[in-house]
Amino acid sequence: MESQTPRRAHGVLESEILAALWAVGRPLTPGEVQQHIAGDPAYSTVVTTLSRLYEKGTLSRVRNGRAYTYEPIADEAGLAARRMRQVLDAEADRRTVLARFVSDLSADDERELLRLLHEA
Asked: Which of 4, 9, 68, 106 is an S-S bond match for 61, by CB 3.0 to 4.6 Å?
């Protein structure tokens, strides 16, 4: 009987791919990405996941011979900020969303946000 590798939870492979790209610090082909991922994911799975990350706007890609090379469009903090902005953009009542967000901040985070807003 053939043993199966347990499936990753939703989003785990995307996170592992991004971590590999950030760690290497240069654009990688799908085959190179595959070498940096634990658990030996199938090449086609890596290609599909890279394509999805590209379609989401998380990665950029450049044709390199017959394949593409991929790299993140931002660092980890930049991608988190981008996700926050996408959530905010999807809401009709931005003021209420922002007010609720600020009301849930810790005192330290609120001071930091105020400092950043004054700097901007």
From this structure: 68
